[in-house]
UniProtKB/TrEMBL annotation:
It catalyses: NADPH + 2 O2 = 2 superoxide + NADP(+) + H(+). It is found in: Cell membrane. This is NADPH oxidase 2. Catalytic subunit of the phagocyte NADPH oxidase complex that mediates the transfer of electrons from cytosolic NADPH to O2 to produce the superoxide anion (O2(-)). In the activated complex, electrons are first transferred from NADPH to flavin adenine dinucleotide (FAD) and subsequently transferred via two heme molecules to molecular oxygen, producing superoxide through an outer-sphere reaction. Its main location: membrane. Pfam families: FAD_binding_8, NAD_binding_6. Keywords: Cell membrane, Electron transport, FAD, Flavoprotein, Glycoprotein, Heme, Ion channel, Ion transport, Iron, Isopeptide bond, Membrane, Metal-binding, NADP, Oxidoreductase, Phosphoprotein, Transmembrane, Transmembrane helix, Transport, Ubl conjugation, Voltage-gated channel. One of its GO terms (cellular component) is NADPH oxidase complex. It is a multi-pass membrane protein. CDD domains: NOX_Duox_like_FAD_NADP. One of its GO terms (biological process) is monoatomic ion transmembrane transport. Its cofactor is FAD.
Length: 302
């Protein structure tokens, strides 16, 4: 038995040593941005840190807890000179981080007063394969929208610098959430991308749909009254917010009809039930003919 145990245990110990060494490297918080609805953005720098789109890191703040490590998806793009995470204040640890960063104070916080942060990572996810396809469907549910902040930012940087070498030609983005207010920072990102794409006369590059799943009668009345306005009253985007849940069968058939004979990457960050639905639709809408349309399903869960 020891022959089978020693090898894996040695590899495990090596991995733990590497992770310990990485977690001891100095991390500098360069900026703390307070977003609406108690969400903060931490922009950080670390020597030798290299990331890909959609990856995540483990974060420890000794000022809050000396033992707790928490995973956060990176919301910055690899092209930026810093890496960032968005933290929504929903528990004791996040509340402690909020206070440690001085976000509960009105006055300006000096950089040297910010807490020390330990970072382990980054670690890979399925989202890294986005640039392997010409057409992709990105589906984010609730907090699962965070990996696609990194993806969309990186797409924009690549598009600005050298669009000719960018294999990705079309993005269909779906955002399902009960309440967009909790993620206003992401709506701001979409607004920026929307404006920049229009300036470059390529508004068709990104097609997005926002579905508000937790709506009540007053919201429905508000929607009817303002539906004819140029911009959506909830997100401020030209694309109107939709209510309820998408008809995935119709969505897949429409996209398959617009991109015949292509491989389409389907990327989900969300609950298991939605993953089952998208996986079944990917299989049923893929053709048996190798020259036909094929949906390749990729998922990650929180």
């Amino acid at each position: 038995t020891w022959k089978w145990v020693v090898g894996p245990m040695f590899l495990y110990l090596c991995e733990r040593l590497v992770r310990f060494w990485r977690s001891q490297q100095k991390v500098v918080i360069t900026k703390v941005v307070i977003h609406p609805f108690k969400t903060i953005e931490l922009q950080m720098m670390k020597k030798g840190f290299k990331m890909e789109v959609g990856q995540y890191i483990f974060v420890k703040c000794p000022a809050v807890s000396k033992l707790e490590w928490h995973p956060f998806t990176l919301t910055s793009a690899p092209e930026e000179d810093y890496f960032s995470i968005h933290v929504r204040i929903v528990g004791d640890w996040t509340e402690g981080l909020f206070n440690a960063c001085g976000c509960d104070k009105q006055e300006f916080q000096e950089a040297w007063k910010l807490p020390k942060i330990a970072v382990d990572g980054p670690f890979g996810t399925a989202s890294e394969d986005v640039f392997s396809y010409e057409t992709v469907m990105l589906v984010g549910a609730g907090i699962g929208v965070t990996p696609f902040a990194s993806v969309l930012k990186s797409v924009w940087y690549k598009y600005c610098h050298d669009a000719t070498n960018l294999k990705l030609k079309k993005i269909y983005f779906y955002w399902l959430c009960r309440d967009t207010h909790a993620f206003e920072w992401f709506a701001d990102l979409l607004q920026s991308l929307e404006a920049q794409m229009q300036e470059r006369n390529n508004a068709e590059f990104l097609s997005y749909n926002i579905y508000l799943t937790g709506w009540d009668e007053s919201q429905a009345t508000h929607f009817v009254m303002h539906h004819e306005e140029e911009k959506d009253v909830i997100t401020g985007l030209k694309q109107k917010t939709l209510y309820g849940r998408p008809n995935w069968e119709n969505e897949f058939k429409t996209i398959a009809g617009q991109h015949p004979g292509s491989r389409i990457g389907v990327f989900l960050c969300g609950p298991e039930a939605l993953a089952d639905t998208l996986n079944k639709q990917s299989i049923s809408n893929s053709e048996a003919d190798p020259r036909g349309v094929h949906f390749i399903f990729n998922k990650e869960n929180f």
